[in-house]
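Q: Convert this sequence to structure tokens.
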Amino acid sequence: MTAAKVFIFAPADPTGETHKKLEEQGCDLVLGKASWDTPQGDNESEVAGMAQGCDALMGTSIRSSPITRKIMESSDKLRIVAKYTIGVDDVDVDAATELGILVAHSPTESNWGGVAEGTITAMLTMLKKIRERDRYLKEGGRWRDPKLQGTYFGSRADGYPGITIGIIGLGRIGSRVSDLMRTWKMRILATDPYVPDSKFAEHGVTRVDLPTLLRESDVVSLHVVLTKETRRMIGAEQLALMKPTAILINTSRGPCVDEVALVEALEKGQIAGAALDVFEEEPIALEHPLRTLGDKVLLSPHMVSSNIGSGLKPGILWATDSVLHALRGEVPDNVYNKEVIPRWEARFGGKSVWQRKP
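A:
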């Protein structure tokens, strides 16, 4: 039986269980380097060399060497690139589609659910002044200080209208955030050109355009994938529309926000604060001005989905099964670039790697 060649460009299974499963099914594995998950260096040529002759590529995020056209073109047998994560911004999806290659991702609830919970945690931390109250007492504050008053979120029977949260992107994460906040009796706005009106109604949110959302929201939260349309979708023009009392939360992708414009808006008081789990360049530089803005910012090292009880394991299992399906000539259930499926089926459908001639 001919072996299938699988390149795990960014391994993330410390148990080795999924590696063993692939090997038991007749796969020869090529393992990448942990150092490729850092933003330093350019390892495209080395990665392309290791991908030569491979039937499948898989792994978690790969920072220094995204899966480029050159890497995918290094094997004319390549069937699938499978990510352990939701995001595929480190894969040239357009090139994969042109080449007839499936790109699979792993939108597991353990991942996107954790992002939704982390988003709400960031909102509570900032608007309830959790950090400030804690520090005040630990640094010798006598007792209550009016400056430490938090924000009441929900509407009330006494006429208090509550705050408005604006959700940019009503996919899995944005929908979960809206579901979790509905019981707080907040006004929830959302914008998403790819979602039907029925989904807005299902999750109890009001559909508006982006400028309206920015003008009327007290909290603006991004939940989008990184595309040509969303790259730097929040810049100086958009920040200028926001309330001076509003905060911006970004737990999606760093390049969706123009950080230079954000820093300027925070320094000038155009907006009150920002909570960021992601950055344009990661890790964020030690000298980055965002590190100097004190309580105006809440920063996290791209770990909002990293939680006990979740993690990458479900995504690793899903990606492994996807690779095995593709190697058998079957379309997996988590294809990101669905438009490529007809072409892929014409080439590989029903054709198992293990049935070809050596």
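The CA atoms of residues 235 and 272 lie 16 Å apart.
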